[in-house]
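Model: Ready when you are.
Researcher: Fold this.
Model:
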Amino acid sequence: MVARRKVAVVGVALSDCGRVDDATPYALHAQAARRALADAGLDRSLVDGFASAGLGTLAPVEVAEYLGLRPTWVDSTSVGGSTWEVMAAHAADAIAAGHARVVLLAYGSTARADVHAGRRTGTLSFGTRGPLQFEVPYGHTLIAKYAMAARRHMIEYGTTIEQLAEVAVQTRANAALNPEAMFRTPVTVDEVLAGPVIADPFTKLHCCVRSDGGAAVLLAAEEYVRDCRTSPVWVLGSGEYVSHAAMSGWADFTVSPVAVSGRLAFERAGVRPDEMDFAEIYDAFTYMTLVTLEDLGFCGKGEGGAFVEKGRLRVGGGGLPVNTDGGGLSAQHPGMRGLFLLVEAVRQLRGEGGERQVRRGADGGLPRLGVASGTGGWFCSSGTVVLGAG
């Protein structure tokens, strides 16, 4: 039996993000990919694996051709926002098994620019086929589904709207330290609550921003690490899970699929949640952050509201820094944002966070362990990856 190789993230990058009116999604893919390769210091000829989703009729064939790649290993898994954590897990398994040596994950979207230019509407539709045909006639949107789940949590556990607002406030505080964040002006709980209602109980600032942007991540087998210009960040363990298609099939609105993917990732990495120095969590809505913290095991079920109080999610707040770049609520959210979680986690573990750099305990050392956990659809899917510094 061939020994499995260790796998590291050796390059990460973002394309231009925020308001990008003069680029196509393909161009953002390419910009992020070039920057990730430059970050790693590896030649493009070494890339024999490619993964992408969300663009083109035959993704990732079209995007790979645009990038000038001819991969012998591909993945086009598309499970919403968790796509990239799931793809990273697949890529790591393929490299470990010897099916690929260097795999590029790339994403790009002009979601904001398309709406402003009239190329698409602001309403996201998942269609009317399959199980969704039984829900579409009732008209509830993606946002409304998350809002209903948040309301269920409030009823079951006494979670307050002020506690949910704290997630937005603290995420914005982290964004204020990130020069690449789209919105950096601090907000208060009162300002979050005073905003226009989007879907009860969510006001505008409970919801993610709409932006343009792309990201890329490069994973490589351990023997290529010595040729890279950056310190490796090792993939220690991962987990993935899908739970339901229609909301009517969701057994418990207060439990996300992260409860399974997170447990698997920590078990496979051989570490505990309380050993994590930070967490990057998919946050299309404030409720997603709160319930994901519970399901990752950072607090008990129903204790998320109390956990997020008193600034515990802020960089330097004395608790667990969460979404250190400002997250989808403030930094950028061009669609399936899971790849951005991996980029930020790697930057933190390499000590490249700048003003938002996470420090460990009293000694002020760099973080050693971090977790990136993405969710997709209306908490239909999840992927969790545990990463460790080189």
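Researcher: Now this one.
Model:
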Amino acid sequence: MAGRGAQEHPHGADRLCEAGDRVYSRAVRRGRVPRRDADPVPCLLELALLHPDPDDMDYLVPTAPQEVMTRLLRGMYEEVSESHRRVGSAVAAFERYAGLGSRVQQPQAAAEGTAIRVLEGLSRIQAAMDEATEACRTEVLTVQPGGIRREHELSEGLHRALALRGRGVRMRDLYTHVARHGQGLLNYLELMGDAVEARTLDEVIDRLILFDRTVAFVPANADRTMALELRHPALVEYLVTVFERLWRLAIPLTAPLPDTGIEGISHRERSIAALLAEGHQDAVIAERLGISVRTCRAHIARLSETLGAASRTQLGVRIAQAGLDGPPGTSGAVPLSVPGRESRIAR
């Protein structure tokens, strides 16, 4: 807006208030107005629409409407020109930034897509998994922790598994040994036939799904309502290496678990013994083996009874003496006499 006080007044010369319009119109018609008439409308002086009459300071004379129009148009033109200049500067700046992005990021983006994407919400995770399934052509590798697989967990991904099987995609799944006791998993594997090969371990890493060794999905929070979609080649290759090493250590689901070498001690109890020797609490052991805390404590009680331990401290000593303080097959244990039973540990 033009005028000396345009910044201080709530309106400009192009949109006068009612009182200001009446006084200015009167001044234009009569040639001048008494100064007291303008007292209620100081905007006319602030906008230089009225100014003192040099022949009589008690009167105010109007600025010619043509002059006011010229002043208004000049101000508007300057505002428009300034806006154009700012728009041009912004466009030039962002074109330069866009050019930098295309030079630095485009080659990587073209080869890898988005390297790391955070997926929040189960629906978005499922949509991303469906998209990766649709694009998969050769192989899927999965790690499924948590013990016995519930029916709803198996059924929610069944449509993807069947679609993959239909395209001849090979699947390899890793579970904990506890999963062997779930009928739902056995039914699932029977349905999938030769398309899926499953193995088990005492412990596995957190959930992992790899498609064609190009995209991986891992949980991003404890309740699995967030996930990371990974497409960076180095990250994906690292996860593939972890999977392959676990796979070599795992036991085929169709093969029995190896004997512990100690009468009365199961494979699971041997795993619990090794974790107890490492100093883990019952809840941690249960989580790592995919069993409940109650089941874990029942196994510990049987382990104590078999080894003749009356306390946790004594149990720790007995575990070490029996050579159960390491993974199966790694200890050179000595014969151990258990009260009421002769037990020998395989070397």
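Researcher: Key takeaway?
Model: The mean pLDDT is 79.
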